């Protein structure tokens, strides 16, 4: 198969992967009161209905606050963990590293049920902090991964030289180590934010009537009705993810941080 043939295969593959998004994009402009394809009209009303829907607005607020706090705490927790796993050699290091990555291997429905059993007696279900603690379990591993990758590409001798010249441990970290891992740290924070904002399965177990994240609000909405506003909301969320990733890639080199791991 020549270059033209491989190019055709790649184009067909990308079209296959993008087809669902393209269908949703086209459907978001339909003027019907129910989902249908192909659409038979054109309007922007569905986008206005997204922001007019109170459950969507509250869901965006809950998901935004939860994702922001989760990303911040994941970065705070991920840095010392990555430093310990990268710079220190101690017994049980491999087991601890595997423990940090284990939430990525366990089905989210199992994690959600376990978190429900843990958080319900406290009680932290149906609260912001319950959602944040639940989301930390699946976001911290990504921060540890990206920060560890940045640390492995940084020269530890620069920090040692600063300590030799009289800098305290905190000063050496703030002036030497932190700038060196900035791209990995912020990339992990962005990944944590997007994962938390989009988390559905775990949120179903630990949310309730007072704190309903956007993915849960969408599931509750489509349980009784389906109209183009769902497609419009989906398009807006895809655009949000694309804009965030592009900005991070241009400013910090997200792919470089992930490849170096």
From TrEMBL:
Q: What is its main location?
A: membrane
- Protein name stated in the entry: ABC transporter permease
Q: What is the lineage of its organism?
A: Bacteria, Bacillati, Actinomycetota, Actinomycetes, Kitasatosporales
What's this protein's family per the entry? Belongs to the binding-protein-dependent transport system permease family.
Q: Which residues form the ABC transmembrane type-1 domain?
A: 60-248
Source organism of this protein record: Streptomyces acidicola
InterPro entries recorded for this chain? MetI-like, MetI-like_sf
The record ties this protein, via PANTHER family, to: INNER MEMBRANE ABC TRANSPORTER PERMEASE PROTEIN YDCV
Q: What Gene3D superfamilies does the database record attribute to this sequence? A: MetI-like
